[in-house]
Amino acid sequence: VALEEDIRAGITMSEFVLYFQPQFNGQQLIGAEVLLRWRHGSGFVSPDKFITTAEQSNLILPLGNWVLSQACKQLAEWAKRPETAHLTLSVNVSPKQFKHDQFVDIVLQAITSSGAPANRLVIELTEGVLLENIENAIERMTQLRAYGVSFSLDDFGTGYSSLSYLQRLPLTEVKIDRSFLHDIDSNASGASIVRTIVSLGHSMGLKVVAEGIESQTQIDYLKTCDCFLWQGYFIGEPQPIESLEKLLVQTN
Ligand code: G
Ligand code: G
Ligand code: G
Ligand code: MN
Ligand code: NA
């Protein structure tokens, strides 16, 4: 309850900020994942410490709306300049947000009020919420897809659902869970699992993003798997918007 009160106060006091973790296609910067940070007291509180509470207390709804609207404002800014107009933003959406009756309207509202190009917005979801009520999930996703919004399945490979089930979802992308990337370095079966997941994703007609890249070895290996969509500390940490934009100048 104390944490819940702190989050409430944090929202009104504008203590929440967005960080942006770069995403690359090979050497080229193509966009970023939006990651919420809480500047509270003496330092930053990680989402791991507050997302669960925010989710339980419904505070994730105002917080999540804020993230979506900020991301859309950023996309609208980028759309004005040719150097940045191609960039995408991936926003994490929690189960409670996705299941909310107004979810589709909330996303459309964020897009419309900011003037963001909908086809630059990617929504990251996890398997559990999508399969809890698959018909409903398909309907919501299809409605937003019609406007150009894309969907990425986060933590791919850690769920338990059948592929035929997953294939029914109008996804555009999967993100290989970072535990598999980690295993490339630590054991032999890790490497073949990553290769299999990449090939599986491609055969489903999806983009495959490798996240949690922490070494050159992993990059070299991903190239041999025909996976060029990359995200991780080794190539770009989550950072404020200003430094992301500097990076753009350096990489283009
Ligand atoms: O950025 P970091 O690795 O600390 O994130 C920890 C967890 O919090 C990750 O699972 C990430 O998806 C989640 N997270 C980060 N930002 C957001 C956000 O804006 N909304 C939601 N729902 N989850 C987020
Ligand atoms: O599956 P197919 O033989 O069409 O694949 C041709 C090549 O393109 C393969 O190397 C495969 O990994 C890659 N590929 C297939 N589908 C996709 C896709 O949706 N996105 C990306 N980035 N690569 C793909
Ligand atoms: O659950 P999700 O995939 O959205 O989590 C994203 C989280 O992963 C962010 O909090 C981010 O800080 C973290 N992250 C990003 N890159 C790396 C990395 O290379 N290694 C590890 N261990 N975590 C990472
Ligand atoms: Mn994510
Ligand atoms: Na993930």
TrEMBL record:
Q: Residue ranges of the EAL domain?
A: 1-252
Q: What is this protein called?
A: EAL domain-containing protein
Which residues of the intact protein are shown?
Answer: 748 to 999 of 999
